[in-house]
């Protein structure tokens, strides 16, 4: 009896080893989610970014890289302006930071905190460069395997000087809502 058990165990050993060898290694399998994404879209920002402007309209482009299905990093570049009136102020932002994902089949939510800078022109601000940070989130709806529609909202905070003749220090932090809509390509 003991001999039959050992014989059958030795007979099954090569088959189980063959099964392990025939399986692809975990590193060889494709990830179940897209690791990288680029996005572009239209933006609307509130009036607090620069003086004498009711709203700023522009665009943003960015990219993100997912380290895990639920965590990654994002880089965002935005350019906004107001073409109405005699003064045409513009604001440019460059932000980067961590992003957290809430994945599902076709709809993916995301939350992010980004840090970087903002630059304004044609607004009489001194200095015209400021530290900026943003927090917000949004959703993406997968249309095709690599394509998605993306909407998001952020609150961008910056501290440009509001009055002339100051030393460049600004006690004025401005919070500006930003709404974005656009497309994303995943690979």
Give a description of the structure.
The protein is mainly beta and 187 residues long. The chain has a single domain (36-186), classed as Beta Barrel (Porin), CATH 2.40.160. The protein is 11% helix and 53% strand. The protein has 1 helix and 8 strands. It has one helix at residues 2-22, and strands spanning 36-45, 56-66, 71-81, 90-102, 107-121, 129-142, 147-158, 174-186. Strands 1-2-3-4-5-6-7-8 form an 8-stranded antiparallel barrel. A hairpin with a 7-residue loop joins strand 5 (107-121) and strand 6 (129-142). The radius of gyration is 26 Å and the shape is elongated.
List the topology elements:
Blueprint: H1 2-22, E1 36-45, E2 56-66, E3 71-81, E4 90-102, E5 107-121, E6 129-142, E7 147-158, E8 174-186
Antiparallel strand pairs: 1-2, 1-8, 2-3, 3-4, 4-5, 5-6, 6-7, 7-8
Q: Would you count the extended β strands for me?
A: 8
Q: What structural category arises from helix and sheet content?
A: mainly beta
Instruction: Write out the strand line-up for the largest beta sheet, numbering strands in chain order.
Output: 1-2-3-4-5-6-7-8
Runs in which pLDDT lies below 50 for 5 or more consecutive residues are 15-21
Number of helices: 1
Strand coverage percent: over 45%
What number is the mean pLDDT? 80
**Fraction of helical residues:** 10-25%
Describe the biggest sheet?
8 strands, antiparallel, barrel
Element string (H = helix, E = strand)? HEEEEEEEE
The name of the CATH topology is Porin
Spatial extent as radius of gyration: 26 Å
- The appropriate CATH architecture is Beta Barrel
How far is the N terminus from the C terminus? 57 Å
In CATH, what is the class? Answer: Mainly Beta
Categorize the overall geometry: elongated
Count of discrete structural domains = 1
């Amino acid at each position: 009896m003991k001999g039959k058990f050992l014989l059958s165990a030795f007979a099954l050993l090569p088959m189980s080893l063959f099964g392990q060898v025939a399986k692809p290694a975990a590193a060889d399998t494709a990830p179940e989610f897209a690791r990288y994404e680029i996005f572009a879209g239209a933006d609307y920002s509130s009036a607090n970014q620069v003086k004498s402007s009711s709203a700023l309209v522009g665009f943003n482009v960015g990219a993100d890289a997912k380290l895990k299905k639920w965590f990654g990093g994002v880089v965002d570049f935005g350019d906004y302006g107001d073409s109405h009136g005699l003064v045409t102020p513009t604001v440019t932002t460059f932000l980067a930071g961590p992003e957290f994902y809430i994945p599902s089949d076709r709809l993916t939510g995301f939350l992010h905190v980004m840090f970087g800078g903002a630059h304004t022109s044609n607004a009489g601000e001194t200095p015209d460069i400021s530290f900026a940070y943003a927090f917000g989130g949004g959703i993406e709806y997968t249309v095709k395997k690599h394509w998605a529609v993306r909407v998001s909202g952020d609150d961008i905070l910056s501290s440009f000087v509001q009055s002339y003749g100051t030393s460049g220090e600004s006690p004025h932090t401005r919070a500006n809502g930003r709404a974005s809509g656009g497309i994303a390509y995943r690979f």
